[in-house]
Write a structure and sequence with these properties.
The complex is a heterodimer of chains A (92) and B (413). Helix content of chain A is 62%, strand content 0%. Chain A is built from six helices and no strands. Chain A is globular. The termini of chain A are far apart. With 413 residues, chain B is mostly beta strands. In chain B, strand 1 and strand 2 form a beta hairpin. The longest helix of chain B is centred in the first third of the chain and has 7 residues. The chains are: A mainly alpha (92), B mainly beta (413). The interface between A and B is large, with 46 and 54 residues.
């Protein structure tokens, strides 16, 4: 309880400087894989603001574009985990 | 594989902060007057935040920085420098005092097979050219992408990925002449000091046709509204292509190449393209055009209602005033019309100050609130070559050229 109270006080004073470290993607399987890959090149608010309309197919196309066009060094296994996470948590 | 900057900005800090992220997110300042048509994710995640030396703008992404101008700023014909929208594709942006940007050490390199005399210009060299000043709208090709139905992936812009400023600098054609531009030059290629966080990511490099580069209005700007360009708007020098979408307005400009063959870079061949013959373009970029698609070029005629705002209360039986701005690809606004019956009939609005054919043009319309209840205003601009705004969105894969007639619904009581 006490920890929660301290965090709330901290949170209230943070917005001006919090920046992208404050971005909270949904806690679900695959999130860590996504953080370790996607956040190297861009902040994760791209995912939030582009939700919830993308279908699985659209998220698949976005991740594929990041790898094939923008050269993101993401392996096939991680790509599949990322696409599943996005479709389940930020898709329609 | 990853650059230093990418590693600094990378995921480690995010993972460490996981425990309190949800709480912090809720504490962020909400953005007033976000368009209800934007995706739910924008309503959840967009915040009002200021970059260094900028006013609080609508933050859509931190890295690379994409911040849009709140619509209330468009009550004025000129958009202030600190409120001007910010748009980057790639996150490796040098600091203001980096030698690549510092005016004392900045260099503009002219190279390519279509220059007779490749050379380098200093900032003082550039300022020694005869200066010109032009008022022009800088609008992102994807302005209002977030309002497309069905939604299109990408930065989910509302109506504020644009601004109007006085740009001062050297005419591009004068600079090209200094390098001895050859007759066979087909395209002029522009690169800036910013770059990708990963080596394999295509650098943001753009070309324009040589004929466009020779127009008197295309300039290399070092001043914006009488002051140096803000860092996040391209300091110290930015290419200004009045009438054309902002994708060509290369920031932090450091290199100009003149080439006799079509430039093959990703940002020309693979991005910023629209279906061929789907939009009413006058100026086309034929050396980059294919049967299927063509580079986006000039802006479509467009308008915005800045007042009243959606949901505003208006007293019944009174005279009320609607205001806004209109702009186009450089032919000039000929008329703005306003409808009070959802778009069935239109009446002419009064056009305001004319700051030239590339500028925002203010307009005003007075009307009587005759009956209580919801009242929908629709605005429609027409330009000097007879183009009007669309009444149904013209779909295209990347969500460009949203020039749907704007609507505002007020509550008359």
């Amino acid at each position: 309880m006490r920890t929660t109270a301290i965090l709330i006080v901290l949170a209230a004073s943070l917005p001006a400087m919090a920046g992208e470290d404050a971005i909270a993607l949904k806690d679900a399987p695959g999130r860590d894989v996504l953080l370790n890959n996607c956040a190297a090149c861009h902040s994760l608010d791209y995912i939030q603001t582009n939700s919830p309309f993308p279908t699985q197919k659209v998220w698949d196309a976005e991740v594929t574009k990041m790898i094939k066009v923008f050269g993101a060094p993401i392996g096939d296994a991680d790509a599949k985990i990322i696409i599943d996470y996005l479709a389940k948590n930020y898709g329609s | 594989m990853l650059s230093r900057r990418a590693l600094i900005g990378g995921g480690a800090g995010l993972v460490a902060a996981a425990g309190m992220r949800a709480l912090v997110d809720e504490a962020h300042a909400a953005v007033p007057d976000l368009n209800p048509g934007l995706p739910g994710g924008v309503h959840d995640a967009a915040t009002l935040e200021a970059l260094p030396n900028k006013a609080p703008l609508i933050k859509l992404s931190y890295r690379p920085p994409n911040y849009e101008t709140p619509v209330s700023y468009f009550d004025n014909i000129i958009t202030p420098n600190d409120a001007f929208f910010v748009r980057y594709h790639l996150s490796d942006i040098p600091e203001t005092n980096d030698p690549k940007l510092d005016p004392k050490t900045w260099r503009l390199k002219l190279s390519g097979d279509s220059f007779d005399k490749p050379l380098e210009l200093s900032f003082d060299d550039l300022k020694a050219f005869e200066p010109v000043e032009i008022t022009a709208v800088c609008q992102c090709a994807g302005n209002r992408r977030g309002l497309f139905q069905p939604h299109v992936p990408g930065v989910q812009w509302g109506a504020g990925a644009m601004g109007n400023a006085r740009w001062k600098g050297a005419k591009l054609k004068d600079v090209l002449a200094r390098g001895g531009l050859k007759k066979e030059a087909l395209e002029i290629v522009f690169d800036g000091a910013d770059g990708p966080p990963v080596e394999k990511t295509p650098d943001f490099v753009k070309s324009i046709p040589a004929w466009k580069a020779m127009e008197d209005t295309v300039i290399l700007a070092y001043e914006m509204n009488g002051a140096p360009l803000p860092h996040f708007n391209g300091f110290p020098v930015r290419l200004i292509v009045p009438g054309w979408t902002a994708t060509y307005w290369v920031k932090h400009l450091t290199s100009i190449e003149a080439v006799a063959q079509p430039f093959q870079g990703f940002w020309m061949k693979g991005a910023y393209r629209i279906p061929t013959n789907k939009f009413p373009l006058v100026q086309r970029f034929l050396s980059q055009e294919t049967e299927a698609n063509t580079p986006i070029t000039e802006m479509m005629v467009n308008s915005l209602i800045t007042s009243p705002t959606d949901g505003a209360l208006l007293p019944v039986g009174k005279t009320a005033q609607a205001k806004g701005i209109a702009w186009d690809g450089g032919y000039g606004i000929a008329a703005v019309e306003v409808s009070l019956d959802g778009g069935r009939t239109f009446d002419s609005a009064l056009l305001g100050e004319d700051r030239g054919r590339f500028s925002f043009r203010p307009w005003m319309y007075e009307f009587k609130t005759t009956a209580a209840g919801p009242l929908t205003l629709v605005a429609r601009a027409r330009n000097a070559v007879g183009q009007t705004q669309t009444s149904a969105l013209i779909s295209n894969p990347a969500g460009y050229h949203n020039n749907l007639v704007p609507r505002v619904t007020v509550d008359v009581r």
